[in-house]
Amino acid sequence: MTLSTGTRRTILACFAxxxxxxxxxxxxxxxxxxxxxxRNPDGSAYSGTVQIRDNGGxxxxxxxxxAQSYAGTGTRNGDVVWVDWGQPxxxxxxxxxxxxxxxxxxxxxxxxxxxx
Length: 116
Description:
mainly beta; Lipocalin
């Protein structure tokens, strides 16, 4: 079967449109309230709470750890969240199938788990 140039262009345009508007499988919002458990770069443990606002992939986060509060903004791409929180290295989380976010900060020396 031979397709005309116009038909091929139409088919390619349809595939391109489907690709542009496809939503990644793991693109659910990560917005909500979380408990935080983590380990500082020196090995000490911490815990607290985290609030996340997810506005279509634009992320706003606020942490409360003991008497300290932190805030940051970032982006979500599928199941990966990057947050600039005012330090040289961002916090990078991956959304797990359970809905937890597992992250690293301080260039991989700090670890954090967020539990919905």
